[in-house]
Amino acid sequence: MNPTTQEILSSTTGITNFTITTTTTIGGGSMIASPTSAASSSSSAPPPQLSRYENQKRRDWNTFGQYLRNHRPPLSLSRCSGAHVLEFLRYLDQFGKTKVHIQLCPFFGQPKPPAPCPCPLRQAWGSLDALIGRLRAAYEENGGKPESNPFGARAVRLYLREVRDSQSKARGISYEKKKRKRPLPPPPAALSRPADGSYE
Ligand SMILES: [Zn+2]
Q1: Where in this chain does the record put each ALOG domain (predicted)?
Q2: Which one of 17, 139, 144, 193 is separated from 29 by 20 to 30 angstroms, measured CA to CA?
Q3: How far apart are CA 146 and CA 193, in angstroms?
Q4: 197/194 Cα distance (integer angstroms)
Q5: pLDDT, position 148
Q6: CA 57: distance to chain centroid?
Q7: What distance in Å separates the CA atoms of residue 69 and residue 67, rounded to the nearest whole number?
Q8: From ligand 1's centre to the CA of 47, what distance in Å?
C-alpha cells in the first residue's frame, strides 16, 4: 500500500492544476486528510489533450494578459477597446521577422530581394490575422461578451485589411492566391452567432 492523495483543483479559468502528495506511511497511521474528497467521488474527467491551436490560443491569451498587466496606465480587460488591441498589435511588431519594404526602398514590391536593406521587420499579416482570430475566441471563452469583444472591433478588421494590402504591395506577394476559390461571403445570419468557438 502506497497511499497517494491526489487533488485535482480546477479553477474557473479552465487551467487545471495538479497537486500530487505522496504520504509515507509511518506506523500504520491511517489519518489521511482529504480536504477535497468531494472531487474524487465525482471521478472528474482526465485533463483534455489540447490541440496545437488550443495551446497557441492559451499562450496568446496569456501574452495579452501580460500586456494588460504591464500597461501604463493600468488597463483591465473589461475596459479594453479595439484601439487597445491595435496598440497591442503595433507593440508586437518589434518582435516581427518579416521584412516589409518602405516605398523608397529599391526592393519595394520584390518578393525576393537580391541584397539586404535597412527596411523594418514586422509581424506578417497572416500571423496577426490568425492571432486576432485566436484572441477573439479566447476572449469569449473567458467570459467576455461577443458584443463587446475588442478583437472583433471594426477598427481591428480595418487595420488588418490595411496591413494585408500594404504588405502585399511591399513584399510583392498576392495573398489572394493562398485562398481557396470560394469567394462566398458569410451569410448575414451567421454573423449573429460568431461565438461558436469552433474554427475547424
Ligand atoms: Zn527594403
Answers
A1: 52-179
A2: 17
A3: 9
A4: 8
A5: 95
A6: 4
A7: 5
A8: 48
3-state SS track over the chain? CCCEEEEEEECCCCCEEEEEEECCCCCCCCCCCCCCHHHHHCCCCCCCCCCHHHHHHHHHHHHHHHHHHHCCCCCCHHHCCHHHHHHHHHHHHHHCCEECCCCCCCCCCCCCCCCCCCCCEECCHHHHHHHHHHHHHHHHHCCCCHHHCHHHCHHHHHHHHHHHHHHHHHHCCCCCCCCCCCCCCCCHHHHHCCCCCCCC
Whole-number Å distance, alpha carbon 108 to ligand 1 midpoint, is 6
Closest among 110, 132, 125 to 179, alpha carbons compared: 125
99 Cα: distance to centroid of ligand 1 (angstroms): 7
For residues 30 and 27, give the distance between their C-alpha atoms in angstroms, rounded to a whole number.
9
Strand partners, 137: none
Stated pTM of the model: 0.64
Residues less than 5 Å from ion ligand 1, measured at CB: 101, 105, 107, 117, 119
pLDDT digits (tens, 9 = 90+) for 52-95: 999 999 999 999 999 999 999 989 999 999 999 999 999 999 99
